[in-house]
Amino acid sequence: MHLAYPAVLSVLLFCTGLYGVLARRNAILVLMSVELMLNAVNLNLVAFDVWLSKAAEETLHSGQALTLFTIAIAAAEIGIGLAIVLAVHRNRGTSDIDKLRDTAEGHEPDGPDTDAPAAAGTAAEKAEATA
Amino acid sequence: MTLATTVGRLHLATDSTTGAAESHGFLSPTGVEIAFLLVGLVTLGAAVFTVTTRQLVHAALWLVVALGGLAVEYLLLTAEFIAWVQVLIYVGAVVVLILFGLMLTRAPIGRSPDADSGNRWAAVTVAVAAAAALVWVVVDAFRTTWIDLDGPAAGSTAVTGASLFQNWVLPFEALSVLLLAALVGAIVLSRKAKADRAAGTGGTAATGRVAGTGRAAGTGGTAATGGTTETDPPADPNGADKGGVR
Lengths: 131, 246
Prior knowledge:
The complex is a heterodimer. Chain A is mostly helical. Chain A has helices at 4-23, 27-55, 62-92, 115-130. In chain A, α1 (4-23) packs antiparallel against α2 (27-55) and α2 packs antiparallel against α3. Helix content of chain B is 71%, strand content 0%. Chain B has a domain at 208-246. In chain B, α2 (31-52) packs antiparallel against α3 (56-76). At the A-B interface, α1, α2, α3 and α4 of A face α2, α3, α4, α5 and α6 of B.
């Protein structure tokens, strides 16, 4: 099999997840997009491991071991992330990451959304929500 | 005889770079490649639906299709154990967890008008630019590289288990500690919020006032539409907060 097929599919899946992380407002949808990005990385790891195990006689199977570790860490991540989202929803009544801007810098007094400060604010909130 | 082996090695070495292109043929895909391409199209389409649909539960169900398609891709790459782990953990556990999360955050059943953020076109630009750059680099780098899928499977359970428990034992054990820490952390996060809520409604009312002051005008329309589908629980401080998510 041509190595470009899994590599290109992995790239496209990663960019789909990237779009989802940047464009979604619900924190759970952002977590789903993060899962898509992690799966793209997993596909890359598996494809290169299968290639190298034959082409370079690599017997450690590091790619597949790392894939298993990534899957386990992703399961832990989604558990913690959902616990944080549920705690935020319980305290604030919302899981909209555009509205969680207590740590956002800037002078905008929590007004309606404009694009420029929303980018910095949502990045911080996303890091908080998905950490 | 040493000369012959040297020549053979040289021939093998050239085979892997230039000879591979001749033996495989650039635009004559094999059956595995065609199956990979078709399943890849389904996977990519499901992923795109996951990040673009406005119905939150449908996004989770499209995620199931995308993750299942990736499991099939692992099978096509002869990584059987990874494929079944993918089905078990992702499709079995993570998606169920996400559905529970959607349910517990009272996600709407129908279309939610504000599923996408305001910076949607910036996100499209970033994603398309990243995809174009990465596809260009990847295709240019691996144009003459083929995966040899013949012979024994590179990712059967025996091979994966042997390498995992011979070479990767210490990371494996560390991973179990990490999973335990994540479990304890999730329980602590959930319990702490519940204890705060049980301690008194004054704190939640205060935070709700902070979150709700500037948003009442902006979310009034969605609150009016969303309020028809669900009843408001009495613990929430005001109604303006709950319109935003849905």
